[in-house]
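Hi there,

I know you've been waiting on this one. I reran it after we fixed the sequence typo, so this is the corrected version. Both the input and the resulting structure follow.
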Amino acid sequence: MNLHESILLAQKVLEEERVSPTVRYMLREPVVGAFAPAALALAEKGRHPRTVCERPGIHRFTSENFELLAGFYAELADSDKSRFVDVLASRIMDGRAYRNASNDVVGTGSWNHCTSELPLITEFLVRQKQVAALLAALPKAPIRPGLTLLLLQLEEMIALDLTLLSDSDYGTLREAVSSLLPTVDALNQQGRISDTKESNTRYHLVRELPPLCHSIAEMCRKAMFLRLKTARGSEANTEIQSDREQVHSFLEKLRFSRLLVASLEQAERSYREASNAFEYKECMSHLRSFLEDLHKEACVLVHARRGDVLPASWGKAIAYLVKEGVITKSEEEFVTSLYRLVSDTGVHPLGAEREYARLMRNMSIEYGLLFLARLDKWLAIP
């Protein structure tokens, strides 16, 4: 599919989204016990500021039209993707990007009487890692109901998944929403107009937008604090850090490949810098490579002493290490289960993506230390 075709199809999707919105957040699991606050978080729409969930991953985003846009985007050549993004982002600066969903003249222009494609565009830009395009367009957005709905969607995103934006994004977003306030105030100072619908639209805009802007600014501050709290809580586990350093020492001592060392380093970097589910999956992918290559390269060391057929696959490598007495049968069962869990990046039954990635990262490090210590002792036996 070429760029022109993708843009034409995207425009049809956005026109449909304006009439019949598909953007929605919902709970991943039924509400029970401690998860009850997660259901309450969904009901806060329209209140300012909203509660920022400290534990992301309980809610999931769904939108049929998002899937269509993402499909068009994925089929484009890399050189055309930036143009596709620009076309979508330009809608943010279009004052007509909304629709009054009812004939209620009094409610004309109010957020709960309007629909728009801008929430979908917001989700698309953020989830496709094109936040810069969103933040560049936002200060230029006209003061119209589409902007109100866009900001409400940003509130929803921050409240339910604070990992979608980085600290830098939050800082820029605070500045962007604050820059809208003087324009809203200027609109409020304008004289009366005779058009009833337009007069009501202005009334709702100047009433709804300032609390929204202040709300998002406060939620950005809260989200940055919670991200800091989570990061420091993870870094405070000095035992894990110490064990990871010991893993590095063993890898260097036993002359494992630099590529294997790099895979563990990249897994750690991906984990610390991740801000959404896709980036946590990248961390998991590096952990999988580390576990797989750790055992394959260990087989080369063992083979140099014992001979036999050098295994090439993961399963045969583990069986070979058991046969030669490097690991026990119970340890084989453990690492096979760990490897399967790390490989399963599509389903995170333990909750939030970061929690799942942290567990797999910690277990991979601790197992790696146990395995390398055992291998070192095995190689030291005459």
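Quick highlight: Confidence is low (pLDDT under 50) at residues 346-352.

Best,
R. S.
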